[in-house]
Structure to design on (312 residues):
């Protein structure tokens, strides 16, 4: 995404990304708060459907509405939409069963699983640094999940089931990342963002026979707000990459743990365990190792281009 950089304004870029991360975390907290009243499939509908107006307004303001509505590969959007919607639904279900910081921490494993899938599905080479990052991240995941999925665990236990759902959602999101990598080769980013919200809204309707309810007015307001927040957060993330490189902004994602701990404590009286923090720390370390390696490779490619093109 760095190729779309319009100007290098790191302060603005970090501010936009930080605000986006906060919005995503607050959105998750809203879904968690309403989970006792509203089933996950219904929450997916509100989250997706009410993000569409925000996205349409943004695309219109940027003059990209046409690109956002035209697609050459509708089946690719549908494939991405199925897995993305499943990942969202599983995450929303897990939010009702686990503390917010724990859901956030397990989600950090997505880039680790994406690396493995990229090697298997895209044929990307994984050298020693990336292998080390994957192993470090997987150890962190095992540490976080051991209290939930270790010896004596049972799916009858709500926390165990929740941890399993979040783990499956994390793997599903890794597949989504692979699909998006393939889609950006021929699809406009605006179309990818727009059609996912549309697909998720439609697919979530199929869960209606399995227990949708008529929420209270206050709950409806919170769910609508979660959708608006999701749309705004997506716009903020996309906008941040206009002013800062991906490698610079990637570590900002980990501020979500601080937000999750703060919101979890204030709103839900939740505190992270030491085991969870140790596991999350290892996963974050593995991801940062990949970020550092990608940044280093980017510098090497830049030097190579400068040598091969004396005019630059």
């Amino acid at each position: 995404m760095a190729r779309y950089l319009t100007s290098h304004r790191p302060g603005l870029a970090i501010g936009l990304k930080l605000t986006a991360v906060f919005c995503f975390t607050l959105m998750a907290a809203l879904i968690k708060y309403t989970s006792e009243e509203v089933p996950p499939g219904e929450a997916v509908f509100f989250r997706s459907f009410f993000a569409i107006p925000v996205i349409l307004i943004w695309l219109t303001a940027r003059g990209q509405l046409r690109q956002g509505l035209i697609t050459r590969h509708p089946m690719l959007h549908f494939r991405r939409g199925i897995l993305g919607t499943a990942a969202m639904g599983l995450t929303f279900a897990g939010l009702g069963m686990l503390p917010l910081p724990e859901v956030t921490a397990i989600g950090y494993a997505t880039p680790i699983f994406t690396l493995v899938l990229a090697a298997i599905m895209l044929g990307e080479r994984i050298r020693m640094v990336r292998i080390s990052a994957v192993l470090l991240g997987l150890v962190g995941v095992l540490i976080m999940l051991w209290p939930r999925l270790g010896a004596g665990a049972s799916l009858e236990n709500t926390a165990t089931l929740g941890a399993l759902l979040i783990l499956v959602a994390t793997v599903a999101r890794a597949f989504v990342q692979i699909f998006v990598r393939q889609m950006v080769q021929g699809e406009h980013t605006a179309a990818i963002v727009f059609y996912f919200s549309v697909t998720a809204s439609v697919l979530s309707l199929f869960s209606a026979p399995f227990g949708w309810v008529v929420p209270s007015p206050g709950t409806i307001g919170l769910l609508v707000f979660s959708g608006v927040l999701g749309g705004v957060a997506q716009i903020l993330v996309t906008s941040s990459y206009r002013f800062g490189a991906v490698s610079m902004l990637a570590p900002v994602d980990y501020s979500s743990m601080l937000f999750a701990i703060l919101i979890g404590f204030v709103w839900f009286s939740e505190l992270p365990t030491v085991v969870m923090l140790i596991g999350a720390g290892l996963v974050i370390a593995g991801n940062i190792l990949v970020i550092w390696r990608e940044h280093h490779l980017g510098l090497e490619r830049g030097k190579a281009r400068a040598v091969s093109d004396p005019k630059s």
About this structure: The chain has 14 helices and no strands. Residues 2-308 form one domain. Residues 303-312 have pLDDT under 50 and may be disordered.
